[in-house]
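From the shared-data thread, chain only:
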Amino acid sequence: MEVIILNTPKEVEQMGGQLLAQQIQKKPASVLGLATGATMHGVYAYLSEQHLDFARIKTFNLDEYYGLGPQHRCSYHTYMRHHLFEKVNIQPENAHVPDGLTPDVEAHCREYENAIEQAGGIDLQLLGLGEDGHIGFNEPSSSLSAGMRIKTLTPMTRRTNQRDFPPGETMPMHVLTLGVGNIMAARRCLLLAHGAKKAPAVQAMVEGPITAMCPASALQQHRSTTVIVDEAAAAFLQLADYFRCVYKHKPEWQK
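Structure, as tokens:
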């Protein structure tokens, strides 16, 4: 696991965008795993400004609220259209987001996983980090080998995400999400986190034991994971100075 500590949230988001852009330039037919949330706003803004060619890119989003249709203002279909898909030349059939209205959850999850496999697997999986250490919507206690499924959100997650819903509208209790097992199958993972509220989760993910109580800790065993955080999110890292030293003194060929 590579840990990069930058000064500000903007720098975190910009570097995340740069690494995604490099992936697209290196492999114009890349398969990207995408995430949502406030942390990704700057990432997608950066990508939208780079005039990259998305014509052969395929994307698979991590999750969607169960019970919300693609036109709902708070669905992740809408989020992705607004922040990225409408601003680049991606082919609509190549942009995949789970169907929150599917009548057969188990069949849809199998089909979604099969679509990823048929596309050749995820080249780069973009991830955010929940305050409780969740990735995707794999809440604490989630199996670290699970595939895509329906999950019940914790009260903490629901309180945090309720801000994205208009006053008077209660957010769904359930989501469809790719599992930690699906995430671990990606060739490379890129996790972004910033802000003091994320500091305990960052420390548990990077330096704590590998445990289902912090699903993101499974990334310690991933073959190629880059974690980018700002100073506030890195506040509890015992090895923060070492991580800064490693990044500063990378060999030229690694840079």
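Helices lie at 9-26, 41-49, 76-83, 105-118, 155-161, 180-184, 199-207, 240-248.
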